[in-house]
Amino acid sequence: MAWYVVRRLLQMIPVFLGATLLIYAMVFLVPGDPIQALAGDRQMTPAVEAALKARYHLDQPFYIQYLEYLKGIVTLDFGTSFSGRPVRDELVRAFPITFRLAIMAVCIEFFFGVVFGLVAGLRKGKLFDSTMLVLSLIIIAVPIFVVGFLAQYLLGIKWGIAPVTVGGKASFGDLLVPAFVLGSLSFAYVLRLTRNAVAENMSADYVRTATAKGLSRRRVIVVHILRNSLIPVITFVGTDLGFLMGGAVVTEGIFNIPGVGGTLYQAITRGEPPTVVAFVTVLIVILLLTNLIVDLLYAALDPRIRYA
What domain of life is recorded for the organism (predicted)? Predict the structure, then answer.
């Protein structure tokens, strides 16, 4: 197992380098002069322009800029934005909030999706199963901003049982409704994945063998059916964590959450490549680590898997 972890970590290095190179190239090689865009309509003196280009290594060839960027990642020095704020301070402020929101959304989608999907799979073809399939299709069809505004209006404005906006505190109670909104789409997918896997495993040979051995129905469902049905669900949920953190722009905008999504959106609109590249780099690392954790969980869920 230890050697497998080391091998997977080594495999992540070229993936990380390739992904960061593409992100860096797409952000910094776009047409236009970011230094002149920073000045706006005002005319910048040649001395100031040269100093800013030297500060951000824009006067160097592209590969030198990329190497300086990698050096900053290794030393956890993400530089400063064009507005003069340290990018690391923005990371420290925004990522814990979005990470807390994404973890809550993943827990909600996993718990409710697995529970409802398990019951629907065990009752395949019955009323509850049909209701869950229709409900999941409705959730998938409705855009997330509609769900967000509807939850904000009903729970925050009309009934007053939840805060309308979150703000800078972002406590557990404040993030509960946004987490439900953020995890609603993934909940529908988890429900359908669990339902299909349970319905398929119900007729598997090992389930019939376990029933013939006299095991209780509860043990057959929990140990044999549910455990094997969670493999595709774990794959989806594990990779979904990184996507939720990067795709929380709409939810954070609706509920005024100062997280990764809102900060990334503001950095893109203001034209701050250092901030955009730093945030996307951290998201890439999170995606790689979650994929590693998912691979390790396979061994715990499927006894047939053995890592040499």
Answer: Bacteria
Neighbouring CB atoms inside 10 A of 246's CB total 20
DSSP assignments along 111-122, one per residue: HHHHHHHHHHHH
Quick: pLDDT tens for 16-45. Answer: 888 888 888 877 766 666 666 565 566 667
Three-state SS sequence of 47-102 = HHHHHHHHHCCCCCCHHHHHHHHHHHHHCCCCCECCCCCEHHHHHHHHHHHHHHHH
Q: pLDDT for 218-235, tens place per residue?
A: 888 888 888 888 888 888
Rounded CA separation 277/274 (Å): 5
How far from 264 is each of 8, 167, 245, 248, 282, CA to CA, in Å? Answer: 29, 17, 11, 10, 12
Can you name the residues that pair with 86 across neighbouring β-strands? 80
Where does the pLDDT of residue 11 fall: very low under 50, low under 70, confident under 90, or very high at 90 and above?
confident
CB 274 within 8 A of CB 82: yes
303 strand-pairing partners: none
Q: Cβ-count burial of 158 within 10 angstroms (0-12 exposed, 13-18 middle, 19+ buried)?
A: exposed
- Half-sphere exposure of residue 187, counting CA atoms within 13 Å on the CB side? 22
Q: How many CB atoms lie within 10 A of CB 196?
A: 16
Q: What integer best gives the mean pLDDT of the chain?
A: 82
Show the domains of the chain with their CATH numbers: 89-270 (1.10.3720.10)
In Å, how far are 19, 59, 167, 278, 289 from 77, measured between CA atoms? 19, 20, 28, 10, 21
Tell me how far apart the alpha carbons of residues 170 and 263 are, in angstroms, rounded to a whole number.
15
Q: Which tokens belong to 132?
A: 């869950």
Q: φ and ψ at 216, to 5 degrees?
A: -65, 155
